[in-house]
Fold each of these.
Amino acid sequence: MRYLFVAAAKDIRRRLADPAAFAIWIGLPLLLGGLLSFINDDDAAPPRATVLVVDEDDTFSSGLLLTALERAPTMELKTVSIDEGRRRIDDGDATALLVVPKGFEQAVFDASSASSASAASAAELTLVTNPAQQILPGIVEETLEIVVEGVFYAQQIFGSALRRIADQRSGPPSDVEVAAMAVEINREAASLQNVLFPPAIALTVVRAAPEQAGPSLSFGQLFFPGMLFMSLLFIAGGMAGDIWEEQQMGTLKRALSTAQSARRLLAGKLVAGIVMMTVIGSVALAAGTVLFDLAWWRVPAALAWSVFTGSALLALFTPLQMLASSQRAADMLSSTILFPLMMLGGSFFPFETMPAWMAAVGQWTPNGLGVARLKDLLYGDVALAPLAIAALGIGVPAAAAFLFSARRLRRRFAVL
């Protein structure tokens, strides 16, 4: 046992002697977590279009128009003068400038009459958009088009009633006139009964029951387990290649020439990897509790599972070094397997966003099993059966890979 710990301590000291590589390993989860925390800002308000409004008509109808626009969640209206509005839109200080001309209400009421087309054309809404913005001006234009369409159909259906209202603008209507207008509007609505009741288009919403109830995860929480395993994969690939570094320095041949078995030498490297992954995993999970509101009481089990899976990945990457003919070939072989594992195993994209067939394949990769069960440990209910199956699915191949590497190590590198 003493030889095992001496070999592990030697590898840890060598890793600490390379602060750049250690900083990359420990900084990767912090960097990715920090970037995801910006995207994870659930309290950030959606972008809103700032619309400057010049209401030259200042009537009940123009007020209704502006109230309808202000109810849109993507708009914020500010009443300004015409000079201030043009100055601010020229300076790019707003999304759009809307001018409601004088006579707007008269044009709306009179537009239902064919003889008042000239009056309607004299009351045109003027919209000046900011060319520096791409999406929000289009939203403002679409909203105004919807309002115009609504006015058009209201004129077609209730034109006569609108003319009555226009005739009574000099004073409040009498009870008889109010009753007459109500009867006329009711008759117009009754004439549309075949279209509106029942409606011409019916919408039926069918909500499928979720396959598995679980907490609602934010964007950052969804990516965090895969991000952690991306770091563990880089550590596993890097520490597995340590065999070639020792071979070039000549220390590997001297270690294999002793009476100690190759199995103990590899076990020491595995222990060193476990120590490094414990440090990296602790930093990543501590950052996760701050950035993504992870529960502290879930961290110990999540750390233990991450270190177990990470050490298994290290054991699985080690045989690739034994099969390569040179260090360069070993690096290429490891990279060829490393990046597809990241893509399939939920490090680049969460399983929830993958196609069904890809997620089904990825969840049975070694790191995919680790990511899936880590999500359970961090966010859901821990079931022993899936956890045990995943542990066997990862641990048994890793143990076989370790035994193969120990058998192959002396034959491959102990050249006298």
Amino acid sequence: MREKMRKFLVLTMKTDQIDRVNLDELKQVTEGEGMISRIKYRRQVNNMMTGRKQKIIAKGEILKLEHAHAENLDEKEKNETFGFTCLHYSVSEASGTIKIVVINKKNQAGQVRVTTIDGDAIAGDDYEKVDTVLDFAKGDTEKFIEVKINDDDNWEPDEDFFVQLYDASSGQELAGKDTRTRVTIIDDDKPGQLCF
């Protein structure tokens, strides 16, 4: 820990002598816009390098985005009976819930089981688990589930969980690339302070 602190001081304050550190400058670096700007800049650079473009959101801002739609998949890659309309959602912590649409492609009566699966995001902590069976009547083209997103005041990186479709009778995962969707929970909390 001491070595990490020394490296931090050398990197940010250009000295490893604590008695030479200007406390006002240190405060500006650790809790002011300087630190936040650097974090935003690093995230933007990372997004540019990886091809991801993600908006930085304010505390309490409600943001719900759809990134990858199943309609862009080749028909051979899709399940012929049920599927999701969107394969990747982003939602801010403050959004409260996310609505995920399931489509009944044959418009016939039937059932499909829908279950959330932990990724980096953990059920009960970051979101509330869903495990339900959707009943489609003949002619029903789509239904949806709502997943509750939990908001907290702790900074953490953006986290993912997944929603998977299963055969309601056998419990087997449905085949096809449109039977699993990813939900990214975007954190809206600023990082904490570094104190000496």
Amino acid sequence: MSKRNRLHAICPYFAMFPEQFVEENVRKHSQKGDWVFDPFSGRGTTILQALLMERNAAGMDINPVAYCISGAKADLPTLGWTLRRIADLELTYAEIDYYELERERRSLPPFFGRAFHHETLRQILFLRSQLDWQHGTVDRFIAALVLGSLHGEMDKSSAYFSNQMPRTISLKPAYSLSYWRKHNLWPKKRHVFTMLREKAALRLKGNEGIAKGRVRMGDARHAGETFTSLGNQVKLVVTSPPYLDVTSFEEDQWLRLWFLGNDSAPTYRSISSDDRHRQATTYWDFLAEAWQGLARLMARRSVIVCRLGGKGLSIDDMTEGMEKSLKTAFARGRLLKAPIVSRLKNRQTHSFVPNATGCLFEVDYVFATS
């Protein structure tokens, strides 16, 4: 695995586009030293790929999981400091009050007792209480490694901590319990600290020359206020906003959000009221406001590349809505080429929820702001 692929795989949960998509557009629409920005940073693909290509990179996301992962990729710690921190955490874990952690484990909803081996869960609970992922570079990186390993398909890989689950999303607790009972599935014991050391060594070895980016947790509509120092400097945006009526990030990532301090059950619209728009009119209003938030950051002759999807929209409707929303912020802007449509294959979750339906196609837009 190449260095860039190892780094992109820090947390390989679902992404709206692969690094090759970013690489192609960064090469085509920017020069070395230019600023590249992603207002919906997700797993940080745009930011890391731009840094690897010797651009300056920044981004933001309102969801803590996305912020943690993209922030980890934008500011990679050294392997030495990371291994030292994991060793210190393991030593502290060995000395803490076992019964206090056990009481906390037993107080969790039934889902957790079937999702993780009891010793694995105690280690996860300890890390949840100790990692200062919002402020510390090393702790954020370790937290991102945990998020990438927190759940996945144990029948295909030993790289995950959980019972059998999709790696992309966290299914609802009641459904998961029913699935495990039906198939008589039990979690395997995982040594979390050992796995984190191995993953850190794999991801960080040889990364010393990679530049640092900037990531903030916040609403895309406030990008201009959040990154005041980048006014009129961003030459390229490569992004993928939440799709229309396709998924709820807050619900689908509830277990990762729990690890970062959220509730021990799915929540809805507590992090963002724009997590899932079901009506096209409110969706286009939201995107128009997001582009307006970007406007003060964009340089002359800049480009916005956006991958979009949605349910209940034709390609023509999507293109019309996308163009109109962009022109509310960039009245003299225009699409540089015809939209590129990609049909989507079956998703991983179909093996867990066979009748699940989602987005049938994605559309790529390239828009010149002036």
Amino acid sequence: MWILDTQTARLTRLPGMPAFVALKWTNMAWTVDGRLVLVTKSAGKQIVALWQPGQARLHVKTVRLPNRESASSDTFAILG
């Protein structure tokens, strides 16, 4: 995965990539404070990864998320 800085046109490779993940289950979004949040599955585990531009590595945590098919909302918050 590569990140494009649209102001400088500079490409940065996201640390830890490529990664073996369930591509169709992967989702990502930028937070208002400039962090990239990735939610994915790998080897049957649900994973959340955080990264801020300039950091040398992803901060990865295994989590248990609601089943998408039975969840009533597509939004959630991870606390802790």
